Amino acid sequence: MRDPIRSIVIVGGGTAGWMAATFLARRLAHLRLSITVVESSAIGTIGVGEATVPAIRDFFAAIDLGEADVLRETEATIKYGIRFADWKARGHDFFHPFGLYGVGAHGVAFHHYWLKLRAAGDTTPLGTYCLATQLAERGLFLPPVDRPANDLGVFNFAVHFDASKFAALLKRLALANKVAHIDARITDVARHGEDGRVTAVTLDSGARVEGDLWIDCSGFRSLLLGDALDVPFVDWRHWLPCDRAVAIPCTAAQVHRPFTTATATEAGWRWHIPLRHRVGNGHVYCSDFIDDADAEDGLLAALEGEALAEPNRIRFTAGHRARFWERNVIGLGLSSGFLEPLESTSITLIQSGLERLIPLFPDRACDPRLAATYNNQSVLEFERIRDFLMLHYSGNQRIGEPFWDHVRAIPPTDGLRAKLDAWRAAGEFVRREWDTFQDASWLSMYAGFDDLPARYSPLADHVADADLRDSLTRMRAAIDGTLAHAEPHAAFLARVHAGVA
After folding, report:
1. Given this model, what pLDDT does residue 1 score?
2. Distance (Å, rounded) from C-alpha 162 to C-alpha 103?
3. Interatomic CA distance for residues 351 and 436, integer angstroms
4. What is the 3-state composition of the chain as percent helix, strand, coil, each rounded to the nearest 5?
5. Distance CA 74, CA 452 (A)
6. What is the helix (H) or strand (E) element at residue 39, kind and residue range?
7. CA angle, 273 as apex, 269 and 274 as ends, to 5°?
8. Which helix (H) or strand (E) holds 263?
9. Which terminus of the chain has a smaller tally of CB atoms within 10 A, N or C?
10. Is 70 exceeded by the pLDDT of residue 49?
């Protein structure tokens, strides 16, 4: 007879813990089980995950959380993508948007037509044909429509928010949905003598908390998955060598446009994330090429306003636990792995981990076949993102700079090599299972680094140059016409906070 899960214990709060609590409380509300979050207010959280990708809007919907409420309560702003400054070379920048480029025709993707005109001498940037890019660059807000007329209207947005305020909002929602909360430090983890499952934790108060299924959201400590179950860590520093970060919020000195900025530095990169009440700043770097003091000084010198807190220094290793689900423990967030926040994937990996758990939700026996499926999906997802992040480094042309020479010379993984080969030979994309970033994202990187294919598709010659120029002119006019209906980003946020959005 099936023995259903009767209790879920989430170890750790923060963004990961409270995302898990709210999501599971909603999706499993029809089951007779308890959900408990055990966290210690004496243990700090990383708390710098301020940027997201558009999938976060699906999470809001899944937990019945209104976007306007998130914007108001977390000092959030809109994000249409990421501006990359100095990555190809000093003084050069490009944009990775949350949207498509142009409109293809006759079964030929738009970028082949753009490449065809480029070969004929047209220097119009690719981003001119992307609505999300134009909204970002002009500091405007426009919500996506449900059924756009064509690919020109396909775009989305994410948000920047105060991570601690977001966690607090989720906590209130979880408690309202009957999630129990215990503020205590875990001093011991008990395991079943025969099969090694986690059965209970002992708290510093002496109390004991038992559970059937455990969600490890304990951060880099990986209290259950790493420490108690001894699941090894797969180290990816040979592919992604940055291993440290320092974060400092500051006051804003200007009105910011709706995007994140990632600026390449001597031995890594800086993030700049505009919120309504402050700016989030951080410096991710490789300690083999710069010392901590210089990295911190560089960040302080780049602040646009007064620092609002002491530096938050973080050490990390890129990679993941060999297994994300072990026995009756599932790791989420930093406890399961870490990839530098270059594309704001930390929160979406938490979200994806929760979404993939629901169709595989076990009974108390925790059939290992479910864990094997989950682990395979999780590893593939991490590997796909790793390859996309590697592309950010391998495409640089900062010749003669030790760090950038080093990362440019790192051999690509087999998966990345297959993508690069198909692109460089024929301008085609290799699609893989569990790819987080789709064709348009890869195109933005290729074009941003001027890593263009040897030829455009000969099928694009179906359209004569004169007709093609006319068509692309009309696309630009259509985008301009759509932008006329947008409003300034700051005005939109003011309306939201006034309760009239």
Report:
1. 41
2. 36
3. 12
4. 40, 20, 40
5. 40
6. strand 34-39
7. 150
8. strand 260-265
9. N
10. no
Q: Mean pLDDT across the stretch 84-98?
A: 98
The owner of tokens 């640089």 is 396
Residue 85, phi then psi, degrees to nearest 5: -105, 130
Answer whether 318's CB lies under 8 Å from 238's CB. Answer: no
Angle formed at CA 193 by CA 191 and CA 198, multiple of 5 degrees? 20
Task: Work out whether the CA dihedral 62, 63, 68, 72 comes out positive or negative.
Answer: negative
Q: Alpha-carbon dihedral of residues 237, 240, 243, 244, nearest 10 degrees?
A: -170
Is 211 within 8 Å of 202 (Cβ atoms)? no
For 456-500, the pLDDT digits (tens) are: 999 999 999 999 999 999 999 999 999 999 999 999 999 999 987
Contact 131, 125 (CB under 8 A): no
pTM for the predicted model, two decimal places: 0.96
Convert 435-459 to b/e letters by CB count within 10 Å (16 or more is b). Answer: bbbebbbbbbbbbbbebbbeebbee
Looking at residue 487, the DSSP 8-state letter turns out to be E
Residue 47 has pLDDT above 60, yes or no: no
Residue 355's Cβ-count burial label (10 Å; 0-12, 13-18, 19+) is middle
* CA-based nearest residue to 215, from 323, 319, 328, 322: 328
Q: Under DSSP, is residue 197 helix (H, G, I), strand (E, B) or coil? A: coil
Distance of alpha carbon 135 from alpha carbon 3, whole angstroms: 53
DSSP character string of 428-449: -----TT-SS-HHHHHHHHHHT
- Are 46 and 282 contacting, i.e. CB atoms less than 8 angstroms apart? no
CA distance 324 to 17: 15
Cα distance between the two ends of the chain? 52
Q: What is the pLDDT of residue 277?
A: 93
Max Cα–Cα distance, the chain, nearest Å: 79
Summarize pLDDT for 273-325 with one digit per residue, the tens: 999 999 999 999 999 999 999 999 999 999 999 999 999 999 999 999 999 99
Q: Which CA distances in Å does 435 have to 357, 374, 431?
A: 18, 15, 7
Catalytic site includes residue 88:
no
Q: Residues 328-363: pLDDT tens digits?
A: 999 999 999 999 999 999 999 999 999 999 999 999
Instruction: Compute the C-alpha angle 85/89/91, nearest 5°.
Output: 55
At residue 41 the predicted structure's pLDDT band, cuts being 50, 70 and 90, is: confident
Token readout for 431 is: 């699609």
Please give the Cα distance from 471 to 108 (Å, whole number).
Answer: 14
Q: State the average pLDDT for the chain.
A: 96
Q: Which residue has the tokens 């209970």?
A: 200
Residue 297 tokens read as 């000084």
Find the mean pLDDT for residues 147-162: 94
Is the confidence at residue 29, as pLDDT, over 60? yes
pLDDT tens for 487-498 read 999 999 999 999
Token representation of residue 76: 């959030």
